[in-house]
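Hey team,

Filing this mostly as a record. A colleague (T.K.) asked me to run one chain through the structure pipeline before their review meeting, and I want the input and output archived in the tracker in case anyone asks later how it was produced. No errors, nothing strange. Just documentation.

Input sequence:
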Amino acid sequence: MFNWQKPLVRDNAEIARIIGPLEQQEPSRDLHILWVWGVDKDHDKGIHAYDWVMDLFVNKLLPNVPRLTAVQTMHFPTPEQWATADLVVFYSGLDMVWEKSHYDLIDAYQARGGGLIFLHLALLQASGEELAKRIGLAFGTRGAANGPTKYGVLPTPVRLTAAAADSPILERFPQELEMVDELYWNLTGDPETVTTLVTSPAGPEFATPAPPQPEDLDGQAWPVMWTKEEGLPEGFAERPAERSAERLARVFATVGGHNYFTFNDPHFRIILLRAMAWVMHESFDPFKPLVELHIE
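Output structure:
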């Protein structure tokens, strides 16, 4: 969509500073990550690259973490897969429309403290309202209460919020961050239920022949990345007594992930790997060596 967008060149010393020293070699327990992907038929090579990104993380990066198993599944996990996962990552398009039975599985998973990550178009499910109950915000269609979500180029730099300063996911990042990707705005859901970490104003809708200029921007602070703890839909039963406060369900979501090269950006890698560790209540340390592996 944005053929003029190019990968950013990062400073190695700055990458090392943001990563910090490696002190813990392995996670505190055995971990099981499930990566959910689909097939994209609507974009050019290198855009919405669900298969490439799945292969990158499941087959090349995550197996390097001790005590961690990563597997992939298409479209939606089975009940058996939900039962064994510590983290489920969704990076796919609208391959199927979820029904109540699908949300029941997500609810049971979150009730036991399971972690979720949603990337880019995985935020799209029907009107978005049911998904937003679980992850805070979602891509809204015409049936959404506040109308459809819009999309266009992500103006850069993006800006970290005050809450980001207290988040281990954005630790040691500058307040403004260059990021080359796509923006979704006017998401459906209640922003008060999430912790917004990164924001951006919006520019023109759809593809543009060049980066938007300052006069093109709307001056709003639309969420680009956010987290949510607990994550249970309103009215859902109380969490099981055996689940401790340290295992509250956690969610990380971002509208980023349009371009394949985003996943080769060390800054985005740091954020995504830190998010994986955070939603599983684990240290980022064992994931640090993955930041600069298999950069294509």
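Quick notes for T.K.: The longest strand covers residues 222-229. The CA atoms of residues 116 and 136 lie 12 Å apart.
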